[in-house]
Amino acid sequence: MNGDILATFAGALASGQIRVVDLTHTLSPDFPVIVMPPELGQSAPFRMERISRYDAAGPAWYWNNLSFGEHTGTHFDAPIHWYTGRDLPLNSVDTLPPSDMIAPACVIDCSAEAAKDADFLLTVADVAKWEKKHGRIPPRSWVLLRTDWSKKTGAAYANLLADGAHTPGPDAEVMRFLVGEREIIGFGTETIGTDAGQAGHFSPPYPAHHYLHGAGRYGLQCLANLDQLPASGAVIVSAPLKIQNGSGSPLRVLALVQERSTG
Amino acid sequence: MTEPLPKPNRKNPLVRTRQPLLPPASRSHKAHGLTLAAAAGRFMLQCCGECGQYTYPAREACPNCLSADLPFKDAPTGGVLLSETRIEVTGDPYFREHMPWRTGLVRLDCGPSAVVHLHGDCGGPGSQLSLSLQLDRVGQAVLFARPVSETPDMEDDPQWREMTADPKYRRVLITDGRSPVAVALAIALKKAGAAKVFVGVADRWKPFEEQKALEAIEGVEIVDLDLTSERSIQELAMDIGAKVEILINTADHVRPTHLFNAGAINTAREAMDHTAMGLMRLAQAFGPVMRSRGADGKTGAVAWVNVLSVHGLSNVPQFGVHSAAHAACLSLSQWLRSELRQGGVRVINAFTGPLDTEWFQTVPPPKVAPKVLADAIMDGLKRGLEDIYVGDVAKDIEARLFDNPKAVEREVGQ
Amino acid sequence: MILSRARQSYDGVVLAVPVTVPYQRYSIETAHWWMGKALRALAEGAGVSHRDFDGFSVSSFTMGPDSAIALTQHFGLTPRHLDHVPMGGASGIVSIRRAARAVQACDADIVACVAADTNQVDTFRKTLANFSRFAQDASYPYGAGGPNASFALIARHYMDTFGATREDFGKLCVAQRDNALKNPHALMKKPLTLEQYLSARPIAEPFHLFDCVMPCAGAEAFLVMREETAASLGLPFVRLLSVIERHNAFPGDPVQVRGGWVIDRDELYGMADVKPDDMDFVQTYDDYAVISMMQFEDLGFCAKGEGPDFVRQHTFTIDGSFPHNTSGGQLSVGQAGAAGGHLGITEAMRQLLGVAGGTQVEGAKLGLVSGFGMINYDRGLASAAAILARA
């Protein structure tokens, strides 16, 4: 290890050899948030109220007050978010090891399946198929489920029917596998949760949350632009806000992608 | 015969919008006994507690026996027209815009003579009349005489329309289409002749059952409106603010909790955000433009209706947060009323008992059907009321609060 | 039973120095300016200093925020009898009655009775809007027609009940305009025909333009004193034979068809020892012709309900069978606020002093002046009348 690596890295960034892809949706009041049964507590949606805009309340400056739940917009889930991770050390966003905030990613493209079936579930077989083509998922990698769901908006994005949300996600078995057998650092999706829309009916319910956080791993959801990432080789920068005892936070998620040489 | 109100043309963009003017507003303290009655659509005059004689105008002592015991009591509404005039000239700027103006001198069945506003269909001197107390454009109580029996299009009498908020040919915004009363309101408004009914719906990505029913009503347009978002409200006001002549705020957020529950603060915050803060956001976005359009033609801005829980008047522990939120709304509505009054726009509060809906599932009957609430609001608009009590529970609480507010506090929810 | 006695006579009370400060339609001055003019004219007319007036009786709608006491300092008066008579068209005669008792009892020697009002551009509207509590609560918010609307209700009822027509009212108005053309102080300078009267634009049915007085600025004033005082100053004077006032008479009448004169007229004529027929002229309070007609009835010139017929039987010009409002009255001279109630008094004084000039009624020796005022709510509350005689 020497300083040359970072200098090389900076040069690659400057020359465009390394491309930076923004995986984040714009935080806006219109972006759907998770809906819980109404008698339960609800996540506050993103809201922005003006303090001043070069006006009587502040003649030369523009600024706003923000309010939102920890789990709004493109956001990060810390282990403390789920009961299974409640007793782990370093389980909240403020204690999260900074080194975990930068990690490689494997992108499993299921966009064709998700287009056909909103309730598409990622299985161990799908992972095996991916590994056959791209190699074994390295430990401490993010696994990102590409569904192109981020290209939908509004009602189609939330896709709420009378029996709840219908959005793709992982099944219970694949989560056990990824966390246990592949030791992934986290799992990311384009939908409102790391779990499928109907995951409340799985066993255990919400398996992504259950296994990830129970093992001290992380979740990323409401990701965008996964279609711009290679199946492997991208590096994810995901640093949540340092909120005391926070269970998660909206954040800017960046992917670093090395351009393939055309020559 | 009343000339039917012609359907208004589209606004001429080259013509200045008239600024709202108001009729004379000064009244004595005692005269507000009439305001109290008019606000609820009652006809009450001072009646001596000692000699039993009715007296008018409002005063401090009975001219018959000098008793100071002069409470306002319900009075018979009949009277005979003694004389009439049609005023063509006045120095008052408001009435100058409404000339000619018909007034009369009426001998009330209960005794006194009174100067009254006279409906155009009233016959000449000697005619029997039916009296009511109305709130005029400045919100003060006035006596209004109408013929004893209905006449065709009598609601369109120009003087009567100044005393009311008739939806006919007016455009209405219902702020929360997810409210259980929204569909019934939209149907009632169209029946009452509303030109258009905008229905605000938050989070259009969340499906809701009533959407089809609303879309099926001709003249209903569903618009994005999230009462918890300042931006959402302002954006809608930018689009349709100048087209809303009646705003009906159906916002509600019933989430039962216990005062000592850990999450009760969040529940309260959410309820306040939807109701009290929502009302304030609406007021900021729609209030100024409505106030400025109080004299915008024959169908200018005229009313702002808040659907409030009667429990806002006295807290019910079972719905403690709901009660508190509506108490806050009531206070805000009084503030709003004083602002909108400057434009001749009245603020109507419809106090309702528990609706016959999901959130009041555990509450025993009697409950209020949405249609009953909608009809009561239509009645309030057409009669120009300020306080409407809907349903047996609300009426019971109104009467009991009038009698002894402490007793209501002790007995409620038991 | 309340012990009651016939009232004492007004023997020895006289009126002198009729003053009219010429009217203006609008004035930028205040009521005080007009009062000052009137007081100076009274002092000059009496040949004394205004500081010699030991009584002061003032009427005005527009002197606010001052009251009578403030005016003493404003004008440098040191009176021992001070009165503010805010009774509109009845205040002139009411101030005579009170001043008469003061000088009779030697509480004062000379009482200056002054009525003055200004008329700035918005004065009239403001006066109406704040006229009285009942007006504010229960009549002004009903179309804000002011006295036109209130008296229109009374007039319409009178017409329906007693068969009066607009032509009857018009006959009085036209006669008064004829009289006014002979009065240089009258603001109305053009002749008026019955046709013009009938076809004028409506104001508040049944009233049209020429049924209504024109508000203006102006002042009227006179002095009340004992005969011995007048003699000592060498002043010509007229005698006060009798005077009455009555307020809120017949409160049970659902609509006004009569005034308080009915209660007191026998005493009015009895004290003066004269009959209605003896009058050489009558100055009624003519805010509207219907009220003049009501006064003909209530002051005994004809029976109740015969007013219309009385008008048809008589002519009302200076040389007519019933000389009436010989100055032209308020309808043609203008209504200078509270001074409208003093207009008939100064005119009657000039008639009896023989100095009425163009409006002089030949050989006038006895005249009746009537006042009426304060439509507090639905009716005029104050009524008053005086009989004056040539000395």
From TrEMBL, chain A:
List the protein's name: Kynurenine formamidase
Q: Which organism is it from?
A: Xaviernesmea oryzae
Kindly list the organism's lineage: Bacteria, Pseudomonadati, Pseudomonadota, Alphaproteobacteria, Hyphomicrobiales
Listed under GO biological process in this entry are:
L-tryptophan catabolic process to kynurenine
Which Pfam family, any one of them, does this sequence belong to?
Cyclase
Q: Give one GO term, molecular function aspect.
A: arylformamidase activity
Matching entries from InterPro entries are given as: KFase/CYL, KFase_sf
UniProtKB/TrEMBL annotation, chain B:
**What name does the UniProt record give this protein?**
Short-chain dehydrogenase
One Pfam family this chain carries?
A: adh_short
- Give the organism, scientific name: Xaviernesmea oryzae
Q: Segment Disordered: which positions?
A: 1-28
By its UniProt entry, which InterPro entries does this protein fall under? Answer: ChsH2_Znr, NA-bd_OB-fold, NAD(P)-bd_dom_sf, SDR_fam, Thioester_dehydratase-like
Question: What PANTHER family does UniProt report for this protein, alphabetically?
Answer: BLR3430 PROTEIN
Q: What is the lineage of its organism?
A: Bacteria, Pseudomonadati, Pseudomonadota, Alphaproteobacteria, Hyphomicrobiales
Task: Tell me which residues make up the ChsH2 rubredoxin-like zinc ribbon domain.
Answer: 37-70
TrEMBL record, chain C:
Q: Name one Pfam family in it.
A: Thiolase_C_1
KW Transmembrane helix (keyword) present: no
Keyword NADP attributed:
no
Matching entries from InterPro entries are given as: Thiolase-like, Thiolase_C_2
SUPFAM superfamilies cross-referenced by the UniProt entry: Thiolase-like (SSF53901)
Q: Which residues form a coiled coil?
A: none
Q: Which residues form the Thiolase C-terminal domain?
A: 269-375
* GO molecular function terms noted in the UniProt entry: acyltransferase activity
Keywords assigned by UniProt, alphabetized = Transferase
PANTHER family for this protein: ACETYL-COA C-ACETYLTRANSFERASE (PTHR42870), NON-SPECIFIC LIPID-TRANSFER PROTEIN-LIKE 2 (PTHR42870:SF1)
Could you identify this protein by its name?
Acetyl-CoA acetyltransferase
Which organism encodes this protein? Answer: Xaviernesmea oryzae
